[in-house]
Design goal:
- About 30% of the residues lie in helices and about 30% in strands.
- It contains 8 helices and 10 strands.
- Strand 7, helix 6 and strand 8 form a beta-alpha-beta unit.
- The radius of gyration is 17 Å and the shape is globular.
- Bound molecules: adenosine-5'-diphosphate (2 copies).
- The site of one adenosine-5'-diphosphate has 11 residues, from strand 2 and helix 1.
């Protein structure tokens, strides 16, 4: 579960996140929808303890990220698919991440299989398409088998097959009773993906309801 209470982030004159409150429950895919610059990434970064709130708080399974005993086992995230060493292979990238975090080596092969990277895992990341980079980022998020998952714009730049694949994966993770929050700036991406939508604009909550209701016009 993710709980955000009065979460606020100010960068100088920009109020990136403005008194945001919502709860993300396990067992469903929750979409986090809003135009570019709405504050989705900033919110996710605060949930992950990568950014300090100006006010309010963000809790993962009832605790602030900094106080989680084994944070990676509780929450995994796809934030920036570019944050990898391009000269490494996908598999070595995952191996390094596993080793650094005390995750058993066998998980590397499991997540490579789970995200369908296949033989590409043995090739250097610099030759990867955007879709393969997204798969690798998702594999890294899944390494520690976390109960809570945050995906920031995972469908960006993917073709229809890639989008269908991500939809299936999100559904599978939710069916395993995990908490799944996935951001997008496109309602069209979310309408066949999310059970529920949290909609924000200019850092503020606009709607928090089922995807069906949003499509019906509330
Ligand atoms: P989204 O993910 O919805 O596209 P962001 O959370 O990235 O939105 O950005 C929200 C607002 O905060 C934007 O106006 C963005 O320019 C600003 N912002 C985000 N990060 C920073 C930062 N590190 N410094 C200054 N402004 C930032
Ligand atoms: P995203 O669209 O995924 O939020 P961005 O390209 O907007 O990614 O941001 C990349 C990095 O730059 C992030 O660390 C973000 O916090 C920071 N950033 C975003 N907007 C601004 C801004 N206006 N000023 C300074 N840093 C920013």
């Amino acid at each position: 579960m993710i709980e955000v209470r009065g979460l606020t982030k100010r960068y100088g004159d920009v109020l990136a996140v403005d008194d945001l409150s919502f709860v993300v429950e396990p067992g469903k895919v929750t979409g986090f929808l809003g135009p570019n610059g709405a504050g989705k990434s900033t919110t996710m970064r605060m949930v992950l303890g990568l950014d300090r709130p100006t006010a309010g708080r963000a809790l993962v399974n009832g605790r602030a990220f900094a106080t989680l005993g084994e944070p990676l086992r509780e929450v995994g995230a796809l934030l920036d698919p570019g944050a990898v060493h391009p000269g490494r292979t996908g598999r070595s990238h995952l191996r390094v991440a596993a080793r650094a975090n005390g995750i058993p080596e066998r998980r590397v092969a499991e997540v490579i299989e789970q995200v369908g990277l296949g033989g590409a895992a043995r090739r250097r990341i610099k030759g990867y398409s955007l879709g393969m980079r997204q798969r690798l980022g998702i594999a890294a998020a899944l390494l520690a088998d976390p109960r809570v998952l945050l995906f920031d714009e995972p469908m960006n730049g993917l073709d229809l097959d890639g989008i269908r694949w991500i939809r299936g994966l999100l559904r599978e993770l939710a069916d395993q009773q995990r908490t799944v929050l996935v951001s997008s700036h496109l309602l069209s991406e979310m309408q066949q993906t999310a059970d529920r939508l949290i909609v924000i604009g200019r850092g503020r909550l606009i709607a928090d309801t089922t995807t069906e209701d949003i499509l019906r016009g509330l």
